[in-house]
Amino acid sequence: MNGRRLFVKRTALAAAALGSWGFVKAQPPVKESAWISVSGRVRSGGKGLAGVRVSDGKSVFVTDSKGNFEFQTDRDFVFLSYPAGYAFNLLENGSVDFFRKLDKNRENQSLDFDLRPLGQSDDRHHFIVLADPQVQTDEEADLFRTESCADMIQTKSEIADPNLFGVGCGDLVFDRFDLFDFYNRALKSTGIPFFQVLGNHDIDLQARSNESAQAPYLAQYGPPYYSFNRGKTHYVVLCDVYFLGNRQYYGYLSETQLSWLEQDLEGLEKGSEVVVFLHIPSFSDIVRLNPGRDANKESVVNRAALYEILKPYKAHLISGHVHWNENRVEGNIFEHNTAAISGAWWSGICYDGTPKGYGVYQSNSGEMSWHYKSVGKTKDFQLRVYPPGKSDKYPDHYLVNVWNWDPAWEIQWTENDRVAGSPTRVETVDPMAADIYAPDKPKKQPWISPQVNGHMFAFKKIDPRAKIKIRVKDRFGNVYEEVIS
């Protein structure tokens, strides 16, 4: 610390000296940040836990053989990366408690984390991902509780997994920070421990800087990026909403955060599964397919840096933000852009035709599987079929919307129980979304319009009198069918 003070002092003197020669105007010395000496212990049942990662969001430290850690920081939080095999402690608001807020008025602080063993193996576990609840009114908050959370309670009962957890993938509210309380109470009703992700509507767009804009979220849920472990899977939550001022933001990952991520992943076995949650997708075809969309707001502008860090691993990126569903595979990166649980801002289905819903994932010894769960439907509801005449672009074709499609899915149609062919993937709008959100239709939010998507399929019937059946098989061998008489 003495060396740091000497450096600051010399820098100030150098600036003053340059100013006397007229090159640089002398400035007063910059006030140092308040450095805090932090010590603590991670323990369970009174016994220290070795090898647990503890961080201040800038550097990552590892507990010693007795569970102790000690370092200096100028940051606001200290948090741990939950080790596998331990139950998640909860905050009063129902979200997972993994952090301690530092008191900037105290130079020395002692922080302890007490963990409880799960009591069963977590090698197999499930998690639910809900994106963009984005409640803006008391009525929408009530719908989130009575519809969305009630559906998740039913899913929880069907899964019957004591290791189940959830992730709120950002835009938890719609600029109404007083509704965080409604959101929290609704999630608590599910009995599912939830982690949270910061979204662009969870920040104060009137703030003067990116750091101060995050205050409403930080007060509720703690640091905006962190990690945890379940079974053989490592999970990371990142903050990719960067506030620019004047109500504007970009999808961007700061250097501090990227450097932290590199440290967080150190020692992780190459080829292992890493799941990263973000709000803004690293990239989405919504920008390519729908001219006029802002790529800076709907993708991460420096995503190449993230991809490079994740290159040694089998990585899944799970995001929200754009209110549609999309699965993209790029090398070792599998990105799942999750449709909004609010649909198109509580107006109905998402504007790509995906029903309101959420993602359900299972990790079994580091091998991931998943499906999309529509609110109010069984998990077998994975497609919607439209007869000819419903699409202006394909008036003579049947259209099929398979919203959770990815390149490993197989789709075919049969006529009178004989395979007739495989539909052609087309880029077009969903007919139901086109009808609901037509320009002349009244809408709850004026900006909603149907969006061209890449999970539509078209085919022409061969025998006009035949009975049609659509058969879809996902990458895990699950088969979904719909019969059209």
Automatic annotation (TrEMBL):
Keywords: Signal. Residues 1-26 form the signal peptide. GO terms for molecular function: hydrolase activity. The keyword Lyase does not apply. Residues 335-480 form the Calcineurin-like phosphoesterase C-terminal domain. Residues 126-324 form the Calcineurin-like phosphoesterase domain. This is Metallophosphoesterase. It holds the Pfam family MetallophosN. SUPFAM superfamilies: Metallo-dependent phosphatases. The keyword Signal applies. It comes from Mariniradius saccharolyticus AK6. Residues 40-115 form the Calcineurin-like phosphoesterase N-terminal domain. Gene3D superfamilies: 3.60.21.10. It comes from the Bacteria.
